[in-house]
Amino acid sequence: MKRYLSGIVISISVFLFFSCLLAPSRANGARLKEISKYYGIRSNHLIGYGLVVGLDGLGDKSGTGFTTQSLANMLNRLGVRVDSNDISVKNVASVIVTAELSPLDKIGSTIDVTVSSIGDAKSLQGGTLLFTPLSGGNGEVYALAQGPVSVGGFLGGGDDAGTQKNFLTVGRVSGGALVEKDIPLRFSEDIYLVLNNPDFTTASSVAREINASIGDSVALPYDSAKVLVNIPQKYHNNFVDFLAMVERIEVPVDTVSRVVVNERTGTVVVGENVRISKVAVSHGNLTVEVDTSYNISQPTPFSGGETVVQPERSVVVNEEEARLITVEPNTRLGELVGALNALGVTPRDLISILQAIKAAGALQAELELI
Fold first, then answer.
1. Residue range(s) defining the domain that contains residue 331
2. For the residues 242-246, what does the mean pLDDT come to?
3. What per-residue confidence (pLDDT) applies to 133?
């Protein structure tokens, strides 16, 4: 009885989920700042090589040549003459430092950096990143990083037993890099809006909504990904206000109808406009149970016989009656889900049925397996 009720609960839950998901609604609207970005305004990768010190014996081993060489070079620059062959420390680790520099970050701003060990250090816990220049792809230094490293975990115990939480060879320095050179941000009379998800219908809607909001034909869809916007003359000395006004405009977003399936977890996500052509669906379960019991034959005392174990197997086959439903043309997938749940279909069965419907050419949407 409990198993039967559990099946009903699962079916009702799946039905309610898809009914809410696929309920008729007005066109999805989103602000332009959520669905697009300005062409040429992007983040830039920075990278640098540095040393993390103060690791309490968990740093690179003595055989890590580049660490000892880097430490010797740093000490020499600080006026301490030392040969790298004479250095034997375990409190230092060589790291690669990475960061993202936005065009909106100006000189004097601070940005977060990620610190990753490249040697054989066991942990960066409690370490301090020393002065590290961060360069862009053109080789110029844009930021200088330094500060305490946070790994978000710990390492404890000794050689025989220990405990560890999270990965300790990668950490972050919050606000650890000071911007020394910013990226010039130049505007011209024409700018491009680049859609995060290219779509011709959405691009056309973007241009139409911008023109309606500005009151002039300043926007033109260039292709499925870009919309050309001509900045009006009155905003040539005030680009910021114009761009702020544009990015607040709400636009109906159109996407390709898609069904996303994760077979490992039994997850099915269905887009709003998914349709199904006329198709018949049959569902039935076949259950095979094999039961093994053991019969023991034991001889009488002093008879000289042997104890014999004889396995006996029984096979029971239960097959539910297959039920056939017919789906009319242009049916929403939500209606099909409701019908399938009435048949007691589980989420994993639903995935198999959707794949079969797609193979039959009746699912008018993309079926994406992840």
1. 2-25+258-294+314-369
2. 87
3. 95
